[in-house]
Amino acid sequence: MTYTVIIAEDDPLQARLLEQFCTEEGLQVFGAVSSGRRLIEEVTAGRPDLVIADITLKRQDGISAIREMIGDGLAPVVILVSGSVDPEHLLAGYDIAAVDYVRKPILRARFKQAVDRAKARVDARRRAAALPDQVNFITCKVRYRDLQFAEPQLLYAERTMLRKTKVVLSDGTHFLTSTPLHDIQAQCSERIVFSHRSYLVNTARIAAIETVPGGSRRNYEITLIGCPVKVPLTPTYYGECRQQMESFTGGPL
């Protein structure tokens, strides 16, 4: 099975070492870049399975570059590498759902462990994409008729002020239905969970969970693949939401 990767590292010696390790692990290296801006361009053009990125890059750091890619609907599996021991960097990696965080100097055995986890996450995504015969269909009431859509199409559903439910699909369409959130969830698999009392979210579409700064409570925002809207996530629903996301993507950071 082929796994493609782009390396983002501004130290030429480290870049060559990473490329050597990747080749030894059977990864197909699309290329190596030294800046966050070039990383975004290469991932947009090449759509690799994996990205191995240093946090400190030229022109734009690795974390912000990956966040920008997620916002653009790109979600490669990410391994972060860094010489930093700053816990904020580890937390940032957790927020963007990186599969692993490898500290420099990079040891061969530790790198293999990270790549094995990354391959498992890619494999999980491929298995999910290869099961069209197991797709669940959801029925919603729209005026006087039933409207059906496949569960994987759902990005999120939101209870509105008009006592309607707004359903947003992955192709960019949305509609209002009289079907309540709980009735929608009852038709779904365990992938569809509440992130807030007024929101259902498809955990298979989560690209990142990030902390919302400020406020007296610790709240979060969810970034969904292919969706510009941030979905709120409250502490009440954080555990289940994170657990379902990680069961789909191959485990926590």
TrEMBL record:
Residues 4-119 form the Response regulatory domain. GO terms for molecular function: phosphorelay response regulator activity; transcription cis-regulatory region binding. SUPFAM superfamilies: CheY-like. Keywords: DNA-binding, Phosphoprotein, Transcription, Transcription regulation. One of its GO terms (biological process) is regulation of DNA-templated transcription. GO terms for cellular component: cytosol; protein-DNA complex. The keyword 4Fe-4S does not apply. The modification 4-aspartylphosphate is found at D54. The keyword Secreted does not apply. It comes from the Bacteria. Pfam families: LytTR (PF04397), Response_reg (PF00072). This is Response regulatory domain-containing protein.
